[in-house]
Amino acid sequence: MDYRSSLDRGPYELSLLAEHGGKIQGIALQSYLFFGSANQLYQRVKVLLAKQPDCRFLVFDFRLVTGIDSSATHSFAQIKQVAATSGARLVLVNLTPELERSFHTARLIDDDVIIASDLDRALESCEQNVIEAHRTEAGRRAIAARLALRCVGIGGICRTAERLLPPARICPRRHYRPAGRRRGLDALHS
Fold first, then answer.
1. Strand, coil or helix: what is 118?
2. 189 lies in some domain
3. Are 46 and 122 part of one and the same domain?
4. Is the whole-model pTM more than 0.85?
5. Are residues 110 and 91 in the same domain?
6. Strand order across the beta sheet in which 24-33 lies
7. Does one domain contain both 153 and 70?
8. Dist CA 41 CA 125 (whole Å)
9. Residue 101's domain spans which residues?
10. Strand 89-93 to strand 114-116: parallel, antiparallel, or no bridges (unpaired)?
11. How many CB atoms within 10 Å of residue 104?
């Protein structure tokens, strides 16, 4: 499933999602889930996670599912385990009360599993998580880049920037003193 939420997002957030949207993977399910279909799903999830090792959210849309048997809930426990091993969380969407009871009985639903009432809300939540994770990273890089541009003559900023960016992207440790400037730095102004 390759969907985005219907939430209007700005260009910056859209660019983060374009770059990191693969962290959200989804599968739309249908019909009655029994051992055979759930086992095929388990195999499919293993392949998907191998192809998308950076997946952080595995969304299952149950909107068209009519029921599930106990052996299929076992397959979902296996899916949860392989997802956790890969660093992904399960997101279960459009669960009927019967399906939710089955998953609770099988102890599949816990604090690591996200339950959402509809697909759009689930996608919005996953997208927001991805955006926040990468906004912080992108913000650190932007600050480091600004510091790197200013680091000529200010050794302390170079050392700060070195912690935020790979060393190859930082200015060399040379200390210049531009004419008319004191040694040291009183404040940084953006």
1. coil
2. no
3. yes
4. no
5. yes
6. 24-33, 57-68, 89-93, 114-116
7. no
8. 24
9. 11-131
10. parallel
11. 12
